[in-house]
Design goal:
Length: about 350
């Protein structure tokens, strides 16, 4: 039976990828220290889609939430379950998850970030998950209090859905450090909550998770619209569009035209931020960091992807095609080298034998 289970539920675009990369790269070190990451990263993702019963769950997905719980229950030490998609669970789904992990001591970890940076990042993440809605449509819906997919991933609502299922001392809110803070500070905060000893994990210096520029993300949104019913599920879309277009091609482009919220919405963002902070100040939980870090820093005018011109789109599309040609050539070269290596290996074994 597990001693403690830390359920890291998100939110997306709050450094989750960085934290998860450290965890999974050091899985064996953590295991030797008595901390288990059950199943695999992909399995935990499938278990999340099962728990939430999302319509885009892959038909060939094999891992369920109950399977993940069963593996976690066999471990005598601490367990970490981490998937930012869990933040989108309803209160009933979160209650089911926490209840299923009993009698282990369940802790909920939520990570919060300022809205000025979060909203553009969340919309971009939606587009990278096959959304076709424009940036203005996304922002307008949120201004009207709509778009539960967004609100469910805010720190306030995740704490209500997940945090309410456990005692106050087991609710942890980590704030994302502001720009310019030490690179490892977010990891140090996470490790402190989960009890990972300092220096246990080897942390590989990796490039920041690059955002797409206004032109490139708008190009991807229009591509999603033209895809129609092709690649409708999570895994095929990630494998074909993210792995072969977004990562190796679009992210490697200039991405010069940065996008974000216009200054005409600055007052709304600041008012909403103060509301959120007041709610969190009144909510009993363990804050790691500072709620002041939820206030925007460096609010400057940016461009909306909605105003990208056709000529900019055409130029980006041509650059993407050129990038795809280079990427395909690289795949061909790697495949050729691998084939030559395998042939040499077989010949060597034959002559030696």
């Amino acid at each position: 039976m597990s001693r403690r289970v830390f359920v890291h539920v998100g939110a997306p675009k709050t450094g989750s990828t960085f934290v998860q990369n450290v965890l999974w790269r050091n899985r064996e070190r953590l295991r030797r220290a008595g901390i288990l990451l059950p199943a695999t990263r992909a399995d935990q993702d499938q278990a999340m889609t099962d728990l939430r019963q999302v319509p885009w769950r892959d038909p060939d997905a094999t891992w369920t939430w109950d399977m993940l719980v069963e593996q976690a229950a066999k471990w005598p030490g601490d367990v970490i379950i981490t998937n930012e998609g869990l933040g989108g669970a309803t209160a009933a789904q979160a209650a089911r998850a926490v209840h299923s992990l009993a009698p282990a001591e369940v802790h909920v970890i939520v990570v919060g970030r300022d809205l000025w940076r979060t909203l553009p990042s969340m919309w971009q993440e939606n587009v990278k998950s096959r959304s076709v809605g424009s940036f203005e449509t996304f922002l307008s819906a949120i201004e009207r209090g709509k778009n539960d997919a967004f609100w469910n991933h805010t720190a306030n609502r995740m704490l209500r859905h997940w945090g309410d299922q456990v005692p106050a001392e087991r609710r942890h809110l980590i704030t994302v450090p502001p720009p310019g803070a030490p690179h490892l500070l977010l990891w140090e905060r996470f490790a402190g909550v989960t009890g990972i000893p300092e220096g246990l994990c080897e942390i590989v210096e990796e490039p920041a998770n690059r955002s797409l520029g206004a032109v490139e993300i708008e190009l991807l949104r229009r591509l999603n619209r033209q895809l129609g019913d092709r690649f409708p599920y999570r895994t095929p879309y990630r494998r074909n569009v993210l792995q072969h277009l977004v990562g190796p091609v679009l992210k490697q482009g200039s991405n010069e035209l940065r996008f974000g919220i216009g200054m005409e919405r600055a007052g709304w963002i600041l008012d909403l931020t103060e509301q959120r902070i007041k709610e969190l100040e009144e909510y009993p939980c363990h804050v790691v960091g500072d709620l002041d870090e939820l206030r925007p820093a460096g609010m400057t005018e940016t461009v909306s992807p909605d105003v990208v011109t056709d000529s900019q789109m055409l130029e980006a599309a041509i650059e993407a095609l050129i990038g795809m040609i280079g990427y395909a050539d690289g795949l061909h070269e790697r495949a050729h080298r691998n084939l030559v290596t395998r042939i040499k290996g077989r010949l060597t074994r034959r002559f030696v034998g």
